[in-house]
Design goal:
Blueprint: H1 5-13, E1 17-22, E2 28-39, E3 43-48, H2 53-60, E4 63-70, E5 75-87, H3 93-115, E6 134-145, H4 149-158
Antiparallel strand pairs: 1-2, 1-4, 2-3, 3-6, 4-5, 5-6
């Protein structure tokens, strides 16, 4: 399934995403993962720094959901699909460079907010994150816009546009 440029841009701006998998008892397992690459033809690559519950869940059941939201802008998306696991030995250097660039950007952003007095975490957790253990390759089957339809129509009416 094709991912619109708007959704791809929104995903790329996020520092991380919450993905959901199904555990051995049928319960939903949520965890945060870093998006490393988005192919608008319907493929997303995510890095997992830990080879734990998510890895085991995907080995057993490849169904995956990815959710991103921006509370301030009141927009978000849920992407549903299937995943494959790419072992650590197959991670290309350009992917690791892209990941390190994202981590540096997150560190810089946190430092700037701290300088401005917007204190968050007391430390800089990104600086001590381990190297990725594997890549999750997701094939997107469905994209769901999480913003209520009437909110979008309301905004369009306020701008003098037709709903």
């Amino acid at each position: 399934m094709r991912i619109s440029d708007e959704v791809a841009h929104f995903l790329n701006k996020q520092g991380y995403t919450v993905i959901s998998t199904i555990d051995e008892y049928g319960y939903v397992h949520n965890s945060c993962k870093g998006i490393i690459n988005i192919d608008v033809r319907g493929h997303i690559q995510l890095l997992d720094l830990y080879k734990q519950a998510t890895h085991a869940n995907l080995k057993r059941n490849p169904v995956i959901s990815l959710t991103v939201v921006d509370e301030h802008k009141f927009i978000g998306y849920s992407l549903k699909g299937h995943a494959r696991i790419m072992d650590k030995k197959d991670i290309q250097q350009d992917i690791l460079k892209a990941w390190n660039k994202k981590i540096s950007s997150r560190l810089s952003g946190r430092l700037m907010k701290n300088v401005k007095g917007d204190r968050g975490h007391a430390g800089h957790p990104e600086a001590i994150l381990p190297e990725p253990e594997y890549i999750i390759e997701m094939d997107v089957d469905k994209v769901i816009d999480l913003a209520p339809a009437d909110i979008g129509k309301h905004d369009m009416k306020r701008k003098g546009e037709e709903a």
